[in-house]
Amino acid sequence: MRQRLAVGNWKMHGNLPDNLALLDKVAVAAGGLSRAVVAVCVPFPYLAQAQSALTGSKAAWGAQNVSQHRKGAFTGEVSAGMLREFGCRYVLVGHSERRQLFGENDATVALKTAAVLSAGMTPIVCVGETLAEREAGITEEVVGRQLGVVADGIRAEGLQVSILAYEPVWAIGTGKTATPQQAQAVHAYLRDFLGRRDTALAASMPILYGGSVKAANAAELFGMRDVDGGLIGGAALVAEEFIAICQAADG
Ligand code: PEP
User: Fold this and answer.
1) Which of 42, 95, 216, 239 is 20 to 30 A off residue 116, Cα-Cα?
2) pLDDT digit string, tens, across residues 97-119
3) How many CB atoms within 10 Å of residue 222?
């Protein structure tokens, strides 16, 4: 059976007191789940707080970005080794906001994925098409290209310990969720794409859906055959919403 996950992406939100209240609730809720893994990807300055609040609980934590470089004169960057020191289990790579707002291309995403793996953490590799690309009928081409470059970079050994997230750009933070059928179609395509390289890998790869997941739509999305949980932005900042989504991922 594939791993099920609910991963929160806090983006650039939070403050110490609000975070603590949220982290405490997430820690308790994670303890009540039977199979889904719960994680929160927090801004860098809050990693120590997440580590302190979640250590000893069943919830994990991670980061939203990482440098592709191991160390050196890269002002403002944070290495995978540093993230590891703060107990991160997961690192998001290739989030569409990184691609669109910070100019990350497929090659950079592949290098970042490799950096996360070399530090012993799990990359959550995000792929997804824009609205214009969907309307042009090239969704599969786009997500296939994005995944293909990472897959070529980290090969089957790396993919075996990675997680994939399908996040249609038009659904992120817009309140416009992909229908369960739209999500399933792309997830099935991605699994098939991996299957052309390695069938066992394709069968075991967790593929998360992200894009306006809420408590109200999570169960239906996560009930699709190739959807193994979610990557959750806005709703991950509201304890009751996020916990209900985690419960939906738990099945
Ligand atoms: C995200 O940030 O990855 C995301 C999916 O955001 P939202 O759930 O707010 O659409």
Assistant:
1) 239
2) 999 999 999 999 999 999 999 99
3) 25
Between CA 27 and CA 73 the distance in angstroms is 37
Q: Are the C-beta atoms of residues 210 and 167 closer than 8 Å to each other?
A: yes
Regarding the beta carbon of 94 and ligand 1, being less than 6 Å apart is answered no
- List Cα–Cα distances, 122 to 110, 116, 168, 200, 218, in angstroms: 13, 7, 22, 19, 23
Q: If DSSP codes are grouped into helix, strand and coil, which group holds residue 251?
A: coil
Is 9 a pocket residue for ligand 1 (Cβ < 6 Å)?
yes
Residues 51-65, mean pLDDT to the nearest whole number: 98
Burial track 190-203 (b if 16+ CB lie within 10 A, e otherwise): bbebbeeebeebbe
For the CA of 213, the nearest atom of ligand 1: 8
- Enumerate the active-site residues: 95, 167
Spell out the alpha helix ranges (H) of 69-179. 80-85, 96-101, 106-118, 131-135, 139-159
How many residues can be counted in the chain?
251
Burial of 32 (0-12, 13-18, 19+ CB in 10 A): exposed
CB atoms within 10 A of CB 109: 25
Q: Where are the beta strands (DSSP E) in the chain?
A: 5-9, 37-41, 60-63, 90-93, 122-127, 163-166, 207-210, 229-232
Q: What is the pLDDT of residues 168-221, one digit of tens each?
A: 999 998 989 999 999 999 999 999 999 999 999 999 999 999 999 999 999 999
Which protein residue's CA is at the shortest distance from atom 8 of ligand 1? Answer: 233
Question: Does 1 have pLDDT greater than 90?
Answer: no
